[in-house]
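Worked example

This section walks through a single chain of length 199. The input is the sequence exactly as stored; nothing has been trimmed or padded.
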Amino acid sequence: MARNKQLWYIIDTQESIFKGRISKRSTVDNKRRFVNTVKRRDILVTGRGIGGLVGHVAIITSDNWVLEMKGRPGWQNGIKSNNRQINKYDWFEEHKSDWTTVYSCPDGNVARDAASWADRKYYNPQNGAKKVIHVTYKINTDMRSTNPSYCSKLIIQAYYFGTGKRKVIQDAIFDRIIVPTTIPMYFRSSYKLINKGKF
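Given that input, the structure is written out below as C-alpha cells.
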C-alpha cells in the first residue's frame, strides 16, 4: 500500500512538471506566432475587460506599436491621459492569459488610413513617437468627439471618420456605447473583418 502511494506521488509530481513545461513552451510559441502575425492596421480584441466594458480592443498603428485607451479601476469618474502606445511584445505579455483575437480589414488602404487617423487624433498629430495628445478615459455615447473616449470608441471612430468618403462602418454607432467584442458587427459587408486567429 505504501509502495503504491509512493509510486503515485512520483508519477503525479512528474506529470505536473511536464505540464508546466508544456504550458511555458506553448506560451512562448503563442507569443512568437502573435508578434509575427500582427501588422500595422490590425485590430486586437480581448475577452477580459479593464475599463468597465466586456472585453477590450486596440489598434496596431505601426508594425510594432499598439494604440489603446486602456481604462482601469476608477473609470467611472474618468481617467486623465489614459491613451497610450505599447509595444506589441508587451501587449501580449499583458493579455496572454485572456487571449487576443486579431482582426484585419480586407482593404489595406482603408485599414492604413484608419490606423493613421487613430495615431494623429489619439497620440501625435504628426504621427510622431512622442505622446502630445492626452485623452481622458470615460464611457460616453458622443461619437463625434475624441475626448473623452474609451477603447472601442477609438476603433470605431478611426474606421468611420478616418477613411475618407468610403462607408466602412454602419451609421448605427451613434448614441450608443460600443462593446469591444461586438466591433466586427459594425463593419459593412464589403469591409467585413477577417479573423486572423486567436493568440
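What to look for: The first strand starts at residue 43 and ends at 46.
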